[in-house]
Amino acid sequence: MSAVPAPHIPVLLEEVAAALQAAPGSVMIDATFGAGGYTRRLLDAGATVHAFDRDPDAIAAAHANPGIWPELAGDAPRLVLHPRRFSEMTEAMGEEGISQVDGVVMDIGVSSMQLDQAQRGFAFAQEGPLDMRMSQEGASAADFVNTADEGAIADVLYLYGEERQSRRVARAIVAARPLATTGELARVIRKALGYRTGAPKDPATRSFQAIRIHVNGELDELEAGLAGAETLLRPRGRLAVVAFHSLEDRIVKRFLRDASGAAAATSRHLPVGPSGPAPTFTAIAKAVRPSEAEIARNPRSRSATLRSALRTDAPARLGRIAA
Length: 323
Prior knowledge:
The protein is an alpha/beta fold.
């Protein structure tokens, strides 16, 4: 198998490969290309892969390494890179003349490459500009914290970071403006929450997560991506989603619950209501989490959860995921 020369280690790789069951001739979507770990496994199984990434650095890195990605070349390449959001996968595949695929994999959240590059501004381990934009376009984290009102900042911190003291943190952020770097923001949050050096978890983590999710519209992207996968997967096609925190996993779990018809189940004490749409997914697998051995090899895998399912032959449902 070819190696991927990147610092990113694909999480639950064997488990994802088992869930997708790629085979020669199959057409798969890697909705979150990153360093290409999942894509490489799918290609090595003989599949054609359409890989999406809104981060131009990820796409450029692949094109800069044709020796690592020979499948990009030729009249009928087996790797097609799409420099766009995975919420646009249905439109993108339509432009390729493809209406159905055999599998979709999604690895939700920020990549190790993004976290480890101080200039991208995703983490506070190293001082960097307060950016956090996956696409490197649009409003940045600095734009948000320096212009949003206190209530809006508090709402973001509470909803996306589950920060119980969101109003205190928001008040401190507004009082300290303007903020330009990750370090400045982290210090403001720590001071607001009474952080003590050596505490097991840095309290700035929750707020950084929340701001990143807001800046990139990540939860809306996930919902749209799941709906796109439902539309594109052929009968018996396979969906595999790896999430890294409770907000993401809740959306995936709810999507599969609703799509499988489990949410329509009613109490035996209540009258039977009208039946809903036919289930679009079945064989919902039990959630899979990393082994202790994988966590030891890759500590960032600790919070990962894999959920997978099999597409039925029912028509895709219309609309977004219910709240």
